[in-house]
Design a protein that fits this description.
Elements (H helix, E strand, L loop, with lengths): L2 H14 L15 H16 L3 H27 L5 H22 L2 H10 L4 H10 L1
Helix pairs in contact: 2-3, 3-4
């Protein structure tokens, strides 16, 4: 399973199992900070990030996971039920994350990140053409 789908699955689970959706005792939810720390640790191993890069990845992930979660919650409270709208929001935050990661990762690390995140060759080619 790719990182973006793991994050989306985690966020979806957080929303589905939130107290607003369930009257039973929901399982304890992980905070954006906890989710970001786990993802940053995984990136450090997979991409061989140094400590500073791991710190930056954790910071980006904390901000962006919190951002997408808040945006999903606003949409849910507003009655939004269109899955395409949620995918658009998720994609917007994925792109923000990629843009931030590209600034501090080496080209090799970033290329590997895109590959393990499931970004298609077509999307990678578009990104390279922009440079």
């Amino acid at each position: 399973m790719t990182y973006k789908y793991k994050i989306l699955s985690l966020l979806t689970s957080m929303l589905i199992f939130s107290p607003a959706f369930s009257q039973n005792n929901p399982p304890p939810q992980k905070s954006p900070v906890e989710i970001a720390a786990q993802q940053a640790d995984r990136l450090q191993i997979d991409l061989k990030l140094n400590d500073y890069q791991t710190f930056l990845a954790d910071s980006v992930l904390q901000a962006n996971i919190a951002g997408v979660t808040q945006e999903f919650e606003r949409m849910r409270l507003g009655g939004m039920q269109n899955p395409d709208s949620y995918r658009e929001v998720q994609n917007k935050w994925r792109i923000k994350t990629e843009e931030a990661f590209e600034k501090f990762m080496t080209p090799e690390q970033f290329e590997r990140y895109l590959r393990i995140s499931g970004v298609s060759a077509k999307e990678r080619k578009k990104r390279m053409e922009k440079k």
